[in-house]
Structure formats: structure tokens, C-alpha cells
Write a structure and sequence with these properties.
heterodimer, A: 283 residues, 0% strand, B: 190 residues, mainly beta, Lipocalin, 8-stranded antiparallel β-barrel
Amino acid sequence: MSFLSDPVVQTSLLPLLTALVAAGVLGLVGGGDRGKRLAGGGAALAFLVTYAVILGWPAFPPQGAMAKTGWSLAAGLVLALVIDAKRPLDRLGLILMAAWLAASALWIFAPVLKAPGGTDLLRFALWAMAAVLILRRLASRGLDPAPAALMGLHLSIALGAVALIGASASIGQLGLAGAATLGGFLLANWPKARHQPGAGLLLAAAGAPLLLALVLVQFGPARTPSWCLLAALPLLWADGVADRVGIANRALRIVALGFLAALPMAVAVGLAFLVSPDATSGY
Amino acid sequence: MSRKILGAALALSALSAPALAGEKFPLDPGHTSIYFIHGHFGFSKMIGRFNESSGEIDFEKDNIPASKVKVVIKAASIDTNHAKRDDHLRSPDFFNVKEFPEITFVSTGIEKTGERSGKLMGNLTMVGVTKPVVLDASFNKDDISPPSKKFTIGFSARGKIKRSDFGMKYGVPNLGDELEMLIETEAMRP
């Protein structure tokens, strides 16, 4: 087995290091405040690199939900880099990112719309509500990129772990890889913040896990307890709780936020584990 | 009485008559087996099968190259004797059965290579991608089947495909790219 074919490398070292390097390069190339915003796109770029290593880059036009996800995220990265190059992520930028996410979701969901079942529509509606919530919470985090990156990291871990428990290996790998890309970005922003939140970071922290979650709930194995992901959503308020603790030191506040956000994530994963009788069954 | 005997004789002769040119024979699901073999991290080869399929053979015994074959496989019927793995194989990582419920093979030509063997060429459509494939086929027998008393034809086919050609790239190369196909089928006069 080659180094890059090792699933552990694909889901940890590769995305983490790629994000760390890509964030640094984009920050340097952009320069100044523009570079600080563009750096978040490094995490999204690292995610796409990891996607290509794990799944192989899909042909165009893409066939199937996972292939569409890859192309959607590539288009989202271009859009995010354009937004971040021009301006801070304001209302217009957020609307553009939300429009991209909605268009991508409809493209992926389209085959189901030909003959949708009641549960298909219910799952899509729940996903859409979660998407609105996640976009709103992660896009309004001030000038420090760490809270959005941390919360996206824990959402991605929840997604990856629940997918793995439900026998959806590629989404499991990609969820954990997404968490690693955000981990790489956080390493570049700890103990002090070097970058700013932007559309690229929003893509990595919210867009990627949301599209993967949509594929999982609509097309994933029937045994996947994807509803358990809802239990992770309270982590979106972890920063509010961390603020109330009143830790003045930023580095320590980020660590505290990490622990707080990990709790709902752990609840979601634990729940999925408990309700899946064959959770530990390998093959 | 003689009319009854004549009727029975006609019915019997119809059942046992050799295939007419262009006669269509539906596949017998009870005697159709579609298996695949692929590598698992180099340790071993895993064997799986599709339990549900249908199709027909447009059989021309005197002009085999003019015969035609169509097979439709229900992708969700995949069975590797492991429920969790079967669910995974039905997911978008592999056969993506919700989006692509059927795998189809439609022959485009047959080239005789021996008295009872040939190359069966056709288009295989899997996960939304159509690619030409060539199977080594053998025509085993055509006769009245003792259990069913129906005129039956039997074929075997073997071939190899690369799943990555169909965009099914997850796990390559750890999980084998090459799928070895083993097909055994009988088709009966309705």
C-alpha cells in the first residue's frame, strides 16, 4: 500500500498538512487583509485535494451524488475565493454562498425529485433547516476565524463518525478529512489569530460537511443513523457558552471552546453508536 | 380421441422444436447466476452476486453472430453474505442504487471463436456510465430441459471490467479495480 493510499493518512496527515500549507500560501499571495480572508480557502482547497485522493476526481458531467458534490465544492471554492479577494464576508457574500449551497443541494437532490418518497422530502427539509442554522451561526463570528473553524471541525467529526458507523466509508473518510483540514487551519491560528473568517472558511466549515451530509441522508446506506447528527447541532452555541466562562486569554478560550463544542459532537456519535447494533462490525 | 392425440403430439413437437430464427427466450431467473470477484487489499478475493436479474436472448442457432442478448440486473440485489458490507456496496461509494437502480448489458455483436464459443460484445451501463465490454461466452446446450419439459438454451460467460472506468473509484487500488464477472444462465421458451 502506498503512503497516500493509506486511509489513515488520507483522513488525517494529508488534509491537515495541505490545509496548513495552503492557508499560508493563500495568505501570503493575497497579502494584507485580503490574504487573511483568502487563507480560509486553504482549508477548502485541502478538502478538494483530499477528495481527489480518496475518490479520484470525477469526470464531467458528473454521474451520481458524490461526483456532483466534488464539482459543486470546486465551484464553491472559486466563488469563495472571488468573494474573499474582493471584500469581507458581508450580507451579499453570505447570500451568494447560500445561493451556491442551495443550487448544489438541488442538483444533488434532483434524481430523488423524480419520484420522491415522504421520508425523502422530510429528510431534505430537515437538512435545509440545519443548513440555514449552520450558515447563520458560522458566518457571524467576528474577526477571529477560530470559533467558526472549531465548530465546523466538530460538525465534520460528527458527520464522519456517524457515516462510518453506518457503513458509508467515503463520507466517513471525507468528514474526518474535513475536520483535519480545519485542524490545519486552526494550527495556523493558534495561539494567536493570523487570519480572518471569510467565504473560503465558511465553505470548509459549513459547505463541505453540509453537502456530504445531504448525500449521506439521501443516498447513504439505509442503516446509517443519520438523524443522530441533529444531536450535534447545539455545538453551534458553544462559543456563547465559552464567552460566559469569561476566559481573557484567547489561546485558552479557544481550547475551552474546543472542549465545549466536543460535547454535543460526542453525544451525536455516542447516540449513533448506541442505536447501531452492528456499529463495531468491520468487514 | 385421434384429435386429442394429434393435439398432444403437436404440443409436444412445439415444445421440442429447435429454436426458430430470431426467437426470443426470456432468461430463467431460477437458473441465472451473476457473480463477481474482486480483490480485498491483496489478502484475498471477495465473491459476491446479484440475486435479481431479467432479460432475454434473441437466439439464432444457425447464425449465432446474429443473436442478441439483453440483461437487466437489480443493483440493490447485491449479496456478499454480509449485510453491512452489502449496504455499503449499495451506497454512493459503489453501486449507488438509489440513483442507479439497474445495471444493464445490451449486446452489440457476437464473434464466433469455436464450435460453441465466442466473444460477446456489448454495452454495459453501470452507475450511469456506459462502456463497451467483451465477454468470453460459450453456448452449452439447447434441448428439452428434463424438469421443465421446455426447450431451453444454456450459456456461460466470463469477463473482466475495471470499475474505475465507470467512475466507481472509491478504494482503488486497495479494493480491487478489476471485477471478474461470472455468468451462468439458461433461457427457456415461454
